[in-house]
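Practice problem: Peptidase M60 domain-containing protein
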Amino acid sequence: MWALSQTQYTIHKIKNNTILLTVGVNNKVKAVADNLIKSGLKVKAVGSFSDSREVGVYVTDAYSVEADAKDLVAFLKAGGGVLIAGQAWHWASTKPKENTLLHFPGNKVSAVAGIYFTAHYGKVEILPVYPQIPSSWMTLRDGKDFKDDLEILLQGVSEFDLTDGIVASEALIHGPLAFPIGTTEDGRAFLAGSYYGRGRVIVITHEYPLKTEKLLSFWKNAIDWLDQGRKGVVGVEPNLKLLSKSGLKYEEAAFRKDLSVFVCTVWKDDHVEEMQDFVAEGGGLLIGGHVWNWAHKNFGLNPFTDFSENKILNRMGLSVMPAHIGEGFYKVPVPTETEEDNNHFRHVLSRFAGRVTKGEELPTHEEKQLKKLEMECTNFLMMKAYGSHSYKHVLSILTDISKKLGMPQVSVKNPVKNLKDRLLLSVGTEVYKASLDPDALLPYLIKDIPVLPVVKDQRIRITVNTADENEWISTGLYLSPGMGTEMILPANIVNKNWTIQIGCQTDYLEHDELKRARSVRERFPVTAEKMQVWNLWGGLIYLVAPPNTKVEGAEVVVPMAVSAPYYKSGVTTADDWLLLRTAPAPWAEFEFDNIILTVPSDVVRKLERPDEVAALWNDIMKGIADLAVIPHTFSRKERMVADEQISVGWMHAGYPVMIHTKSAAELFEPEYARTAGLWGEVHELGHNQQRSCSEFRPHTTEATCNLWSVYVHEEVLGLKREKAHSSMILTNRKNTVDKLFKGGKNLSDWNVWTALETYLQLQGIFGWDAFKKVFAAYHKISNYPSDNSGKMNLYAETFSQTVGMNLSAFFKSWGWPIDRATEEKLTPLPPWSDHPMLKYD
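Answer key — C-alpha cells:
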C-alpha cells in the first residue's frame, strides 16, 4: 500500500522543467530514488527524516517512521509532502492484541492526515487509473471491530441513566471509525465514540450528564480510553464537576494543547481547528451537548454547518442531529464481534445500496431500518462537506441510487406509501440540494416538468416596516421545478438577516402516506448582492424581511422567472385582473388589506369579481381586529396558503395559516361565506389572536379561538352561530355541559366545546362589548401568572371587574380553582346570583 499526504504540492515543476524542491528518499526505499533520478528529479538519499533538510517531499516505508513521527507531522502541517509505503496485515498478525490503527508505525504519521494502514488485505491485481476516485457501496463498511473498545468503555457499567428531565439529541454515526456506545432500544444513539487521526473522541448528546455522577463509572472508563495509557493531564471545563468524586486526577482548565484529555460542553466554537488537530495528533476529547433547542431557536441555519459542536465533530465521523431522545434508563449493549445486525449508518446504507443495485427485495428486518436510514441520509447530506472523501463517497453512492431507481413521482393521485419509496423521495430531494451538478440529476428525479413562458429582468420595489416578527414579501413571480435565477439585491439588505424563500408550502410532513415531498420550501440567507436561488419543487419567490426592519423603495431584480396571477386590492383594477389571471404560474396570490391568500391558480382562473372577494376578507379581518381590540391595520398581514397535504388537522394556525386545497375555492365565494360560513378558516385566524396571558392550555387551546368564529359569523357575515357550526345548536351545547357534570366536573374534561360554553354563557348575558373590554384590559397587563390556576383567577377577577359583578361563584361552578384571595377581592361587587350554572350546583 502507498499512502500520500500533503498540504500543497508533492513535487513542483515550472515550464522549463526546473525542479523547485528536493525529494528526500529514505535509504530503505532507495530504489525509488534511482527511479526519480532517471526522471530528472533532484533527489537526496537519507538514513532518516532527521537527515532531511530543505526537502519538500519525503519518501519512506511505513516501518521506519516511528522515531521521526513528531517531526514528520510538523513537516506535513507546514506544507510538506510524505510518500509512505507499506502494509500492516503482517504486523497485525504478529501482534494480535495491539491496536493497529494506533500502534502500527506508519499510522503514527499517516493517521494524522486521515489515512490508515489496516489489517485488511486484498488480492494481487493490476488496477486501472481512473480520472476520479471510484466509489462503491461495498466499501462503505470498511472500518474496524469495536468489540475491544466497548469492553473497556462498558466495564462495570450497568445502565445509562438519562432521567431528571434530560432530552438528548440523537447522534449521527457516519464515519468508518465511529461507533455507537449507548442507544435506545430502537437503535438511536445518544452516546458514541470515534477514532480520529491518532486520537479518540466521545460525544454524549446532552451536557447535563457531564455535570452529575449518575454515569460516573462510564466517565472513568471513558477518560482511561481517551487517555490511551499516557496517564496525562485531564483538563475539565470549569463549570463541569463530573470527576470530583471519581478518584481521577484532573484540573479545571480551558482548552490547551498540552492536555492528554479535554472535557467540555459545546457552547463555544473558538477552538474548532485546534481541537481537531489536538485529537488528530493523539489527544482525547469528551464533549457533551444537544442541538435540538439551538435548531428550534435558529430556524433557517444549518445545524450541521453552523452549530458549534458539529463544527468540531463532523470531521471525526460524528454529528448531533436535531431529532431528540426522551429521558429514561437505557440498557448497556453487549459487545459483539458480529456486525450483521449493526445499525451503523454506513452499514445500513451499504446493505440497502447492495440490495437495490442488485434488484433484490429487502428482508423485513432491513425494511424496518429504512425510516431511520431516511432521516440519517437526509441529515448527513446537509453537511455539504465537499472537502471530505467520506462525504463525497456517500454522496456519490446516493446519487447513483437516485439515478438507478429514480424518485417516486409523488402526487395526490400517486401517493407515496411504503418505507422504500419514502426514503427514495427524501434522499432524492436532498441529493439534488447537495449535488455539484443538479441539472444533470434533475431528469432522473422529476420526469415531466411543464415548460412555462418566462419573463426577464423583473424589477421589484420593496417598502417594508416590520414589527416583532419576520414578514414575507411577495414578488408575483414563480420558479419552475429545478429552475434557477440569480437575483440582484440591494446592498442595504445583505447580511442583515434577510432571506429569499422559494415556495409557500411551509409544512414539514411526517405522514406515513405522502401526497407531496416532506419539505417543499427552500430558504437562502441573503449574504451577497447576487444570489443564485432555486427549488427542486419550484415555488413562488418571496423575500423574507427580519423583525424590526424598515426599508423604503429598495430595488430587487429577478433576471428570469415565471409570472404568477397576483391581485392587490386598491391597486389591481378589474381590467388588470382579466389579464393577470392568465399568468402561467401554477400559484396565485391575493393581497387584501390584512390578509394574503395563496392558492393554486386553477382555483381562480375564472374569478370575475376579485373586488367582492376583497370586500369579504377586509370585513372578516376588521371583525377579527374588533374583537381582539387591536388596530384595523395589522402590524403584519395574515397569510393563508392552500396545500394538498398539511402537517396536522384539516387546517392549522400560524404564519401562514395552512388549509387543504379542497377548501381553497370557498375562500373566493362571498355568497357561500354568508350562507354556509367559513368556520374553520376563522377558527385558525382566531388561534393567531390567542395570547398566553389569558389562555389556560391545554383546556382553552381549541376553545377560545372559536370566539372569533362566533363573532365574525354573527356580527360580520350575518350568519347565526347554530348555522355556522352544528356544535352551536342549543341542544348540542346543553349536552356537552351535561356530559361534563355527569363525569364528575373534572377540570381535565373542560376543553374544546365544553370550555367554549363557559365563554358563550358570559357572552349571552354580558355581550361582546364585555369581551372587548376584557381583551383591552389584558393589553395593559405586563405581569401575569405562568400557571393555569393563577391565570384563571386573574381572568375571573378581570372579567368581574369589567362587568361590575362578582362572577366567582359562576367560575367555581365550572370547576375553576378560584382561591380565597380572589373571592375576597371581588366581595365588594354584587354577586351574580342567577348565573346559568346554578342548576348544576
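Discussion: The chain has five domains: 2-127, 147-336, 351-445, 455-683, 690-840. Students who identified this feature from the C-alpha cells alone can consider the problem solved.
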